[in-house]
Amino acid sequence: MTVTRARTLGFCPGVRRAVETAERAAAAASASGSSGFVLGQIVHNPRVSARLSGLGMETIADPDDAPGRLAGATVVIRSHGAAPEVFERLRAAGAEVVDATCPRVAANQKAAASYASRGYLVVIAGDAGHGETLGVAGHAPGAVIVSSAAEAAAVATSRPLALIAQTTISETEYEAVREALRIPGRELVDVGGVCAASRERRSAIEELAGEVDAIVVVGGKNSANTRRLAELAATLGVPTWHVENAAEIPDELGRYERVGLSAGASTPDEDIDEAEARLLELSQAASDDAASDAASRA
To answer: Which pTM value belongs to this model?
Structure first.
């Protein structure tokens, strides 16, 4: 078996920045003897979350999850960002807030606030309930999150619209939402906001699909960008597996001669290296079995 890595995979700059920010915050909290928290998973990857937990950072979903414990504590805002009112609640509780929001997400938040202040209805194309889309919506009171062209077509308003993307949405999804929002006589500003890192990883998957017999995409099962990479690979007609770690790679992959390896923007190098090692082990095991069968027939 040959294992070919996608030309772009794993941590993007925004994720790396967020993880390093959280690790520094953990070290500072430990040195000062204060409590440390992360508001939600810093990124959607179990290994990264476990590592931060081992450094003493407790994950909470909401400031109310740590009543009476935030005064003097360090709280890291995850890469997906948060609504302004969350920052206000944390500071009111006496926490030191460390903002690890991805710069691309922060730019979308700023754009949402700007358009909302000028009377636009902000429409966010992305996953409803995702931390990033909720955070962006929190900067634009009354904003609407749509997850499909059908939901976009149901947006009924005469107000001018400003369309902003969840950073990890695919261009195809975003364009379908944009076209569904176009109504004669209604202003629509295409703000954009798709992350270049997500675009690069999808392009790398498309290139990889023409070179291999199967593709393994490594990353958290709740990672939106990882899920979209796996979905894209599958639509290209290549047998595809989305696994969270090397242990989830099935034995059947050992029979493929050329396997492509990709990973979401929140997947650390260790997960990628271990997945490649597992694939090569499966290949060796399959080769040994074939040799044994041949010897037994001789």
So the answer is: 0.89
